[in-house]
Amino acid sequence: NERSFLWSVTPSSFRSYALPPRAELETAARRVYELLTARNQRPNGETPAQRAVRLLETDAEYDEAATRLSRMLLGPVANQLGAKRLVIVSEGALQYVPFGALPTPEVSPTEGGDGDPEMRSDSASDDEATDGRLASPSPAVDRFLPLIASHEIVSLPSASALAVLREDLAGRITAPRAVAVLADPVFRIDDPRIGDVNPEGRDDGQRGDEAEIERSGKESGVTEFRRLRFSRMEADAIATLAPGERNLSATDFAASRDTATGSELSHYRVLHFATHGLLNSQHPELSGIVLSLVDERGNPRDGFLRLHDIYNLELGADLVVLSACQTALGKEIRGEGLVGLTRGFMYAGAPRVVASLWSVDDRATAELMKRFYAAMFIEGMRPAAALRAAQTSLRREKGWESPYYWAGFTLQGEWR
What is the pTM of this model? Predict the structure, then answer.
């Protein structure tokens, strides 16, 4: 029956509100996450017709569960939200919930408006409000209006993280090149990109790093690394949108651990990884990003960018995008958020990280990322606003209305 509290913080106020017991919040948050990720479940023997019925039922149940969780968490401050940017620091199972996919809590008619005027100072700046980034889309596509429709939403791993990030950024020289993309690695020896190779010249022995990645995959619930074909389309779209001529597009065998740990990456303002990620809650040190596991001749090679490798990087990037599966998750350290890949990249010098909360749909992710980079590079939006613009546009698309397709990515860190 441990109590939970909601802390509402703005530049001019600090307030606390009692919430339901922690166990009740955890149960509600986990249920919302289970319903959001129902499309990743493949029950044995389920027919296409049965799957369609199951998803209709889970979508309807999600509406109810998400509404209940939103009221539990945000009901006390519903009249204060307005169209402000929301910066979320959460604990436990709540870190798995994309707040942007929760419905906007109802404002009590007795409170009305945007609440206490002193709470308005945390709203987005005038230049952000006038360029359309905070304009609400038509609610016609929604069964309810999600928070992302009216709010830019950012997550922080802990309350102290922002001050540390800003201190580290002070006086830092901007990296000279725009984007480095590592995408569409080669995972298997039967990949057609390897071609015909004399088997006698192939090293088929298993090395220690292979056993390590297999172990981490099993402990993370990943039994195989399938090719993410749409990640190539994702890389090509980013290359087309990125400014300048000295950008890096490392695909196929070049999407390697050697490329990721090389000094060249420090010259890029944006780093984009489009591949598989492993978040090992049993052994967090075995979390990492999976890059090419074989070379051009089909020989196995170390393609596992481990958590300690990430901590040891020296980055000049303003943004790291982890377009991979479950990259925002990690082992919970109470009071300090999730010690996962995002924290590793922040430690290595990146003030903001875009990462996923669940195994995202390959095709939808490629489309989301294309819109995200177009918003940044063509329309000049900041990353947090660009992610919101991409998500709100994708959720309008027929067939992709479910939050499963557009809500899986969150921005953590500095929003400026």
Answer: 0.83
